[in-house]
Design brief:
The complex is a heterodimer. Chain A is of the alpha+beta class. In chain A, about 30% of the residues lie in helices and about 25% in strands. Chain B is built from eleven helices and two strands. Classes of the chains: A alpha+beta, B mainly alpha.
Amino acid sequence: MWNVGSFLRVEKGFQMAEKSDSKPEITRRGFLSWVRAGWIAFTAAAATGSLSAFRFMFPNVLFEPPQIFKAGFPSEYADGMVDTRWKEKFRVWIVREGNLIYALRSVCTHLGCTPNWLSTEEKFKCPCHGSGFYISGINFEGPAPRPLERVRISLAEDGQILIDQTQIFQQEKGQWSNPESFLII
Amino acid sequence: MKKLFTVKNTQIWKSIFRHGPPEDRRNRSLAVLANVFLHLHPVKVRSSSIRLRYTWCMGGLTFFLFLVLTVTGILLMFYYRPTVEYAYGDIIDLREQVPLGAMREIHRWGAHAMVISVWLHMFRVFMTGSYKPPREFNWVVGVLLLVLTLLLSFTGYLLPWDQLAMWAVTVGSNMARATPLMGTEGPGTALLVLGDVKLVHAGNDARFFLLAGRFVGAATLLRFYVLHCIAIPFVASILMAVHFWRIRKDGGISGPL
């Protein structure tokens, strides 16, 4: 507050001087409203700057594999097999059982590691904490609390399988009955 | 002795040390107060507060380990490149191709030791009731420093870029999904929707902020490197200055009652 007081002392001098040469008067009220506007402008600028800096941490382009990709023709997939050809690049297995094809995310539902398909033991096994899943994706051992997730699967216009990882289907929510979560050929 | 006396009479010495030799109380106080590094420390301490059985010197050891980690960390930065191509190879080279290959081990074990000493320091402070007023604010600063220590540990974990690093950080950062309102799977996040559109999703939540992507990748390595080497030590240094200063301002190290 002392600087406002010292301003007041200055102001008295101003007023006396101004009566003689009639310059526009700086009143205490007017000065304080400028101070207020100044602080509002400063706060707004600082907030905008901080928000921009925060937004800076979220890039516009990700150098990650696309979430939607074509996975070849259904005839390329053998019956009763887990196909691991897309696992490394897209983290997806494609499983064919008879005329049913579905795509499982290779992400353990425990803490997100990548399980391995053990063909001799016919199960997905996670190396991090030992969760095990049947070929269907249902969990049966280890700490995983729920089955693996399916991703959207459909046929593209050229007859290839189209995988869309932006949409996932969870068995425990009854979403595996959704026709987009599997493919009948 | 005569020679030293001459050195102390030179203009250079006197320009650095403005006070006389610490032979009386005034000059002993000035020796501490006139030094930017020492002035964080109180001029006088109780005899009880230098009793090792009471303090375990754990705060001091933590600070010492921080200094060791800073020095060894800077040395490691001369060789390590935080890219997917080079990171793991550089870590191996630090052991095999660089003189004093133990430098990385000193950094690693020092980091483990610092986490342990921070916990022991907190344990001592808690058991002696030193968190009570007037020191309650400094306890809060200390808790923030604990969090920063753990974050330093966590970000440093990824830098070797081996399987352990990769999956440990995958697992660890998945916890950020459960952040309230800011993680995709956190409590309250489901309420943040505009019609059918989720406002907080895997592409903009707290985990994405940490990883700079939807999973641990090249951008994560660089981001953790910057956090580990610059951002977190910077904030920690400021908080440490506050922490030490407040010990002094809150009446020094607490003594036995």
